[in-house]
Amino acid sequence: MAKAVRFHAAGGPEVLRLEQVEVGDPGPGQVRVRHVAVGLNYADTYFRNGTYPVPTPSGIGVEASGVVTAVGDGVQGLAPGDRVTYTGFVNTLGAYCTERVMAAAPLIKLPDTIAFETAAAMTMRGLTSAYLLRRIYDFKPGQTILLHAAAGGVGLIVSQWAKLLGLNVIGTVGSAAKAEIALAHGCAHTIDYSREDVASRVRELTGGEGVHVVFDSVGKDTFMGSVDSLRRRGLLVCVGTASGPVPPFDPILLAQKGSLFVTRPALADYIADPAEKAALADEVFGLVGAGKIRIEINQRYTLEDAVQAHRDLEARKTTGSSIFVI
């Protein structure tokens, strides 16, 4: 028997339960994977609380690393004993478990240079960072970005990578401690949103011009500040809604604020093509394997701790990446 965290109705962290489950054998196009580490992502809370509705009872979690223990008919390029990692969305839901049967398509073979825990902490965050920096905008050295939640898991990867690309990173944080973390990982400046006006400070730091791109994973609470931080014809990339959905707005606002652009990308659309997914994975794993980007795992939990892990995540008590260790 395997263990899996499941929920039988949408709600707060308390709806999560650790249960015994049968795993079985993989069918055509499937594999069985024994997990070593599981990623904890803010998106997991959206499945749990009903923001992303799924039929219940349901598993939870979309990212993990481990070892292939069996393969079904028609599976190519994978064999028992292979080290793998994966991320996705609905097609990988159920990662909070010790072992599972799942589709083979989302799996990525893990380079020997990347440990299981590192992979669970970075596959989703790393691929997200990769498409944000390599697909969303044609960045040039010397350009400036505003990065919300700069001390979070994606934030720490983006800030390090952006610095490698020659970009100036202004990161927002919620405390002095988080500011120190962000500055140590590539931010040129930080803004403490708990005591500073973000847009005003951005204008001060950019000589009144504003930034070329804003990466906003917070949503409702930061939307207008993000808009007001952009230079003429700048781009707002809405990549999350930690504080709630962005309120409806009239598109004329974009013209009034300087002919701005807004996009709301999803990782699924940047890893749907296997070749593009492989290219993004190779680039981010290569940078991490070479030591050019550090993955900070600052919280480790067991599956028994799932309720507390979600409480910590929603209270913004975490920094860097969080994982479950199996």
TrEMBL record:
Taxonomic source organism: Pseudoduganella rivuli
Q: EC class of this enzyme?
A: oxidoreductase
Query: Where is each Enoyl reductase (ER) domain found?
Result: 11-324
Q: Cellular component GO terms, alphabetically?
A: cytosol
**Keyword flag Oxidoreductase:** yes
- Supply the Pfam families for this chain: ADH_N, ADH_zinc_N
SMART domains, alphabetized: PKS_ER
- The name this protein goes by in its record: NADPH:quinone reductase
Give the enzyme's EC designation.
1.6.5.5
InterPro entries reported in the protein's UniProt record: ADH-like_C (IPR013149), ADH-like_N (IPR013154), ER (IPR020843), GroES-like_sf (IPR011032), NAD(P)-bd_dom_sf (IPR036291), QOR-like (IPR047618), Quin_OxRdtase/zeta-crystal_CS (IPR002364)
Print the keywords alphabetically. NADP, Oxidoreductase
Q: Name one GO molecular function term.
A: mRNA 3'-UTR AU-rich region binding
